[in-house]
Design a protein that fits this description.
- The chain is an alpha/beta fold.
- The chain is 40% helix and 17% strand.
- It contains 20 helices and 17 strands.
- Strands 10, 11, 12, 13, 14, 15, 16 and 17 form an eight-stranded mixed beta sheet that branches. Strands 1-2-3-4-5-7-9 form a seven-stranded mixed beta sheet, with helices on both faces. A two-stranded parallel sheet has the order 6-8.
- Helix 13 packs parallel to helix 15.
């Protein structure tokens, strides 16, 4: 018996060797995800795996993983025998162009990427770490939703993630990439983040899927039509951008990341540029048509003023009557918000008010100055707008501009009519500097409508219109009252804007 005990006794060195082998085996299994068959199916759908996505998103060899050995604790419904190391999500931190970021990437090859209690704990850990150090969080979502076998434990996990989304809001930037299904309660985490990007043909966002919709409403609809990129980038406004495939989405996210600060305690990064602050663009002097009813390209105006003509637009396909996005002025990030005369004549409506307000508040939270290009004939009239709550939603944009303490420069390119003039960061609601081009018109309304009200029943309406235009279809009355600070040449807008931004860069209102 003594011989047998000695034969089965393991030395400390041997024990350490066995532990190292087990660790390596577990780590290898974690890197394999759900196995080669499931990985192949992922690729057949045109999707990358969780780790392949992180390899493209982060700088080479910069990723440091947390909780690689974590496994779920569920023992119901045969789950005790179904344990995969990592439990369906890869978490950690890395660098994007040398700047710190915390990430999680859901692995659809492991239990369909479903969220378990331990899976949620891994995500919550990196969110807490991000708040501690002051760094953004990027989530790569590809999940079938809650892990049904875990019941309320999975739901509690979602709530813990939601809570951290809320607590992180306005403190660190949060970006969600939807790279597969995201259904049920899972949709609320991306909805609580600052920006939501989707991938065409492979990503879906919906609270109830097509089967449930059909059972309840008897409506037949596909996944794509219900929660694909088209409805969410063009109709609902849930998603900010959609990209052709995973690779493009990850590359554009890296590009977008460079516009943002790491937290609300820091300024956005400065990028070297050879584009002179003194550059003048003569073509801007001719961009606004003589006829006030003829549209023009506000995108062209923006591109001719910002560094190297580069403008990263957000939500280009939803609420097209207002333009929002990021650019740089002498290497420094600025937020751009502009009325778009090509869509609905640039009128403000419910969707554009929501879109603009959310963007203004993000920029204000993260120390990003705002440049506003104004050409607004008023709020869009109609029963659909009134009954849909234009008063309530329009007030959001007014509130956002009034509340914002970052530097704000407003440039009136043409129309500034009615209450919409007040809303678009006018001097009266704490606009820092307000300029007008010579083509600017500041009035309660356009000449035709105003004359029909003031001179109702008068025969010579055309003469009265000319009289009204002479009084209001120019920026001088507002300049005389100090409501605008100067009337500037369009070609000098870049230089004037830059000078203002530098003057205000050290302080907030």
């Amino acid at each position: 018996s003594l011989f047998k005990k000695r034969a089965y006794t393991i030395s400390p060195a041997e024990n350490k060797r066995l532990i190292r082998e087990r660790l390596e085996k577990e780590r290898y299994e974690a890197f394999q995800g759900g196995g080669l068959d499931r990985v192949s199916k992922q690729h057949e759908k045109g999707k990358l795996t969780a780790r392949e996505r992180l390899d493209l998103l982060l700088d080479q060899d910069s990723f440091r993983e947390y909780d690689v050995f974590v496994q779920h604790r569920c023992s119901d419904f045969g789950m005790k025998k179904k344990r995969i190391t990592g439990d369906g999500v890869v978490t950690g931190h890395g660098l994007i162009n040398g700047r710190r970021v915390f990430v999680f990437s859901q692995d659809f090859t492991v239990f369909g990427g479903t969220l378990s209690e331990t899976n949620a704990l891994k995500i919550c850990k990196i969110m807490d770490k991000a708040m501690e150090v002051g760094a953004p969080v990027i989530g790569l979502n590809d999940s079938g939703g809650a892990r049904i076998q875990e019941g309320v434990g999975s739901l509690a996990g979602y709530a813990e993630v939601f809570k951290r989304n809320v607590l992180s809001s306005g403190v660190i930037p949060q970006i969600s990439l939807i790279m597969g299904p995201c259904a049920g309660g899972a949709v609320y985490s991306p909805a609580l983040t600052d920006f939501v990007f989707m991938v065409q043909n492979t990503s879906y966002l919906f609270i109830t899927g097509p089967e449930v919709v059909k059972a309840v409403t008897r409506e037949t609809i596909s996944q794509e039509d219900l929660g694909g990129t088209n409805p969410h980038t063009k109709k609902s406004g849930v998603a900010h951008l959609a990209f052709q495939n995973d690779v493009m989405a990850l590359r554009k996210t890296r590009e977008f990341f460079d516009f943002l600060p790491l937290s609300n305690r820091e300024s956005p990064p400065v990028r070297y540029t050879e584009d002179s602050r003194y550059r003048e663009t003569e073509s801007l002097n001719r961009v606004v048509p003589d006829d006030p009813n003829v549209p023009y390209s506000m995108h062209q105006v923006i591109s001719k003023i910002v560094d190297e003509g580069y403008f990263f637009e957000i939500m280009p396909s939803w609420a097209k009557n207002i333009i929002v996005g990021f650019a740089r002025m002498e290497g420094r990030t600025v937020g751009i918000i502009a009325n778009n005369p090509i869509a609905l004549a640039g009128c403000l409506d419910i969707d554009s008010s929501i879109k603009g307000a959310r963007f203004v508040r993000f920029c204000d939270a993260f120390n990003i100055p705002l440049i506003i290009f104004e050409d607004v004939p008023g709020f869009l009239p109609g029963t659909a707008q009134e009954h849909g709550g234009i008063i309530r939603h329009g007030a959001k944009l007014l509130y956002a501009f009034t509340e914002a303490t970052v530097p704000k420069i407003t440039i009136i390119t043409r129309k500034a009519y009615g209450g919409a003039y007040d809303v678009m960061s006018s001097k009266h609601i704490r606009g820092d500097t307000n300029y007008a081009w010579p083509s600017a018109e500041l009035a309660v309304m356009g000449a035709k409508g105003a004359v029909e009200i003031i001179f109702r029943g008068v025969d010579d309406i055309q003469k009265k219109e000319e009289e009204y235009n002479n009084l209001f279809a120019n920026p001088l009355p507002a300049a005389e009252r100090g409501f605008i600070d100067d009337v500037i040449s369009p070609s000098s807008t870049r230089t004037v804007s830059y000078t203002h931004l530098r003057a205000h860069e050290t302080g907030r209102n």
